[in-house]
Amino acid sequence: MKVQAGLVLDDQVGVVTGAASGLGFAIAEALAEAGAMVVLTDVDADGLERAVDAIRAGGGAAEAAVCDVGDRQALRGCI
Questions:
Q1: Order of strands, sheet of 61-66, starting from the edge strand that comes earlier in the sequence
Q2: Residue 22 contacts by C-beta under 8 Å, 6 or more apart in sequence?
Q3: Mean pLDDT (the chain, rounded)
Q4: Residue 79's CB: how many other CB atoms inside 10 A?
Q5: CA terminus-to-terminus distance, the chain
Q6: Is residue 65's pLDDT more than 70?
Q7: According to the model, what pLDDT value does residue 4 have?
Q8: pLDDT in tens, 9-51
Q9: What is the 3-state secondary structure (H, E, C) of the chain?
Q10: What is the reported pLDDT for 21?
Q11: What's the CA gap between 13 and 39, in Å, rounded?
Q12: CA-based angle 58:55:36, to the nearest 5?
């Protein structure tokens, strides 16, 4: 996924749900490429680890938070 040309997100934090794969991962990767520190959330811990590793390997800043965003209490603990 390409981010708008010239978009700079340095010193910004993005939180992306469903980020272990697919569209969520693509969004997280694009935000990281634009300079944001990205917090990836998903219920898939192994997938999150792979996604964070991929973003870091590309020079991005990323952290993982295993979280079910459908569970309000879990979401509050995640953020």
A1: 13-17, 37-42, 61-66
A2: none
A3: 92
A4: 10
A5: 25
A6: yes
A7: 64
A8: 999 999 999 999 999 999 999 999 999 999 999 999 999 999 9
A9: CCCCCCCCCCCCEEEEECCCCHHHHHHHHHHHHCCCEEEEEECCHHHHHHHHHHHHHCCCEEEEEECCCCCHHHHHHHC
A10: 97
A11: 7
A12: 100
For residues 59 and 29, the answer to whether their CB atoms sit within 8 Å is no
Tokens of 3: 């981010």
Choose among 70, 71, 15: nearest CA to 48. Answer: 15
The CA distance from 20 to 8, in Å, is 24
Task: State how beta strands 13-17 and 61-66 pair.
Answer: unpaired
pLDDT at 76 over 70: yes
